[in-house]
Amino acid sequence: MAKLYFSYSTMNAGKSTLLLQASYNYRERGMRTVLFIAAFDDRGGAGRIASRIGLDCEAIPFRPEDDLFQSLENLKAEGEIACAFVDEAQFLTESQVWQLARVADRLNVPVMTYGLRTDFRGKLFPGSAALLAIADELREVRTICHCGRKATMVVRVNDEGRVIREGAQIEVGGNEKYVSYCRRHWDDVMGREAPD
After folding, report:
1. Which of 47, 112, 164, 176 is deepest in the core (most CB within 10 A)?
2. Number of domains in the chain
3. Is residue 185 predicted with pLDDT exceeding 60?
4. Coiled coil where (predicted)?
């Protein structure tokens, strides 16, 4: 039976690299994979998943209104799919997460999603919240804070490197815009006060 997987972490943990490596392993054995990436994330080029270490691959861009179950059902009619992969899964809608669960349950195609768990304010993304709730398997991809502890949070910075505490939840960027921290140092740099 196929499963829905969610591999999550902060920025710069190597999620895209892991996705591309896993897809390559299937393809090397002659198996077909289908890759998706959020349409507005064009850091690697439109419709491309790219890693910081230089790996990249063509992917199908998805938008909030897209029906991913229908897309994969149509693609499966053209030939067997060994696995479906989704990069930047935090940008999925809750409905799309359920569509991907149906892909695993009804089309018997494993779905591996990779994304951030929380935004720069420490809040769950809607796609991540749905994946944390219904994925069959959760996998944490680890990276480290400057102190050596496991990084679990991310901070958004401006062009001068100053911490940004407010703003839109979604703002695409990489090392120039985001820094990963352990919870303690995230709390320090965000200047948060303990709740009453």
Report:
1. 112
2. 1
3. yes
4. none
